[in-house]
Structures are given as C-alpha cells and as structure tokens.
Amino acid sequence: LEPIGKISGSRTAGRFLTLRDLAFIDGEKLLVGKTYTVVGEGKLIKHSATGRFGHSYPLLGKIRVNGVRDGVFTGIVESVRDVLPRGAILVDLVDYVNMPNPIAAAEKKEAKIVVDDRFVTQTLSQHKIIYLTLGADDGIKAGMIFRTYHYKDPSDGHQLTGSELIRNNDIKVIATSPGMCLGLVISGNSTFAADDSAYLLTDVSQY
Q1: DSSP symbol at 51
Q2: In whole angstroms, how large is the CA radius of gyration of the chain?
Q3: 44, 75, 200, 206: which has the highest count of C-beta atoms within 10 A?
C-alpha cells in the first residue's frame, strides 16, 4: 500500500481518535473532499519453506479530508473498525471485498497455509481469514476454493490415511497478490493449523 498521509494530531486529548473526531494530517497528495482508508502497521507475512510472502495491514477506519491550511490537512473520522492512533497511515480508499462466485480450478495445486498471528491463532476454524502460498502468478483467481483434509486421529495423532479421504475445511479465495492469496474459511468440520496443506478443487458444483 502506498502511504498518502499520516495522522499527526487531534483536537482531543485522548490517546486515540474515534468516530467524528477531528484529525490533523500530514501529506502532499491528499485531496479535500476525498475519503481515505486508515491502516495500522503493516506486517510481512512469509512462509519460510516456500519463500512466498505478502503484507498484511489492519483496516482501522475512514477519514474524509475537509480542509487544508498552511500545508496541514484536517479530516473527520467517518467510520471506525478500531481506534486510530496518532501516526496511523492514510491510503487510497480500500473497498470491502464482495464474496466472489465459486470458480473451478483447471488443475489441482497444493498450497501451504499462513496466518497473521495478530488476528488469528495458529489453530484455525470456520470464518477465519488466512493466507495461502499461491497467487495470481500461479493462476489463482478470486472464487477458487481450496480444501484441507484429515489424515490423523485427533485423539492420539496416529495416522488414519495417507489419501484425501476425510474432508476437513474449504477455503474460498477472496483476493490475490502475485505470490499469495487471501482466503476465507467457508465451511469446516474441525480445526486445522498454520502450515497445513490445502488443495485446489477442480469441481465446485456443490457450491
């Protein structure tokens, strides 16, 4: 994400800004009347074995720039998902992701699961957001579905099967970058973990 501005201060004495607060913003490319997304500190998301990586930014809220004087912009906090600290970065407006229609992959491919541990634990379940080590450069598109499988007995860990016999969780791709993709766990039978394998589905007729 390209930073366009930074919250430099506020008229309130509180440590954080919240809904309807007035923010003072440093930046040269800001436009009066335009709304921007406020993001928190970015984090490198990397899978060490494959070398695949991406960046994760928490979306904190939105600010509409309403004026400028002596090179300092002012803006009103229009919406919040979390508190906005001084120093938070403004970027071009980030649209909410619409749930894409399911797409069948042309061929089965394996990806590894990666997580941002600021938002989810290493053990995952339905409705969690995760990353996978395949991206647009690998032909991945929003709407494709990955599936994880059970191989071991969860009570004692002994091997039940080496084949894809016991379905576990399905993950729908909701956004892509060149080397990774972002997925939402849309159905699941039990938990799974970071670094587990997930496989593209070539048949999504059930969806």
Answers
A1: -
A2: 21
A3: 75
